[in-house]
Design goal:
The complex is a heterodimer of chains A (109) and B (109). By secondary structure, chain A is mainly β. Chain A has no helices and eleven strands. The chains are: A mainly beta (109), B mainly beta (109). Chains A and B meet through strand 5 and strand 10 of A and strand 5 and strand 10 of B.
């Protein structure tokens, strides 16, 4: 089992749709969680952190479920500009950081 | 603006040749990293450095070498021992979350 797993997609959704991605992790000692966005042939950029209490940033909501060991990203009212690959990042105790392979999202007009 | 600069953007390597990828940051971060990204895969750690004059091997260090003589600089050399070097190389530094450079796309010709 991979340490961090994501559904590779692609997710094809129309503009205005709500879409959700999950990311599961195997190390129960993992402490920090992030979502990154990566556009085609570009570097990943931090989208948002994921807190135990859940957090929201505009149309984006991130949640952490420690019991089931997964994090989620919800995008409401999808825009064409949301088309990208979304990477989950899990940091275990200390230094070890694991990047998921990413979930590809295509938002269609 | 603070950030990470990688150069060159594209690099072509002949068989048996060593090439060096540049990474410079002005974020005053102590920790710097080199990742490799292949299509459909997550980022894999090549080398990391948590302080000047010190660096550690990551998960796929074979065929690569680094130096960290200055806080701002963390160059990566892809040696002829790396048999499959064609990939997208990302340099990052860590403050709150990771900040990535724009990447170097290396191709063997």
């Amino acid at each position: 089992r991979k340490e961090v797993e994501q559904d590779p997609g692609p997710f094809n959704v129309p503009e205005g749709a709500t879409v959700a991605f999950n990311c599961t992790y195997s190390n129960s000692a993992s402490q920090s969680f992030f979502w990154y966005r990566q556009d085609c042939r570009k570097e990943p950029k931090l989208l948002m952190s994921v807190y135990s209490s859940g957090n929201e940033d505009g149309r984006f909501t991130a949640q952490l479920n420690r019991a089931s060991q997964y994090i989620s990203l919800l995008i409401r009212d999808s825009k064409l500009s949301d088309s990208a690959t979304y990477l989950c990042v899990v940091i275990a105790g200390g230094f070890k950081t694991i990047f998921g392979a990413g979930t590809r999202l295509f938002v269609k007009a | 603006d603070g950030g990470i600069t990688q150069s060159p953007k594209y690099l072509f390597r002949k068989e048996g040749q060593n090439v060096t990828l540049s990474c410079e940051q002005n974020l005053n971060h102590d920790a710097m990293y080199w990742y490799r990204q292949d299509p459909g895969q997550g980022l894999r750690l090549i080398y990391y450095s948590q302080i000047v004059n010190d660096f550690q091997k990551g998960d796929i260090a074979e065929g690569y070498s680094v130096s960290r003589e200055k806080k701002e600089s963390f160059p990566l050399t892809v040696t002829s021992a790396q048999k499959n070097p064609t990939a997208f190389y990302l340099c990052a530094s860590k403050g709150y979350g990771y900040t990535f450079g724009s990447g170097t796309r290396l191709t063997v010709v």
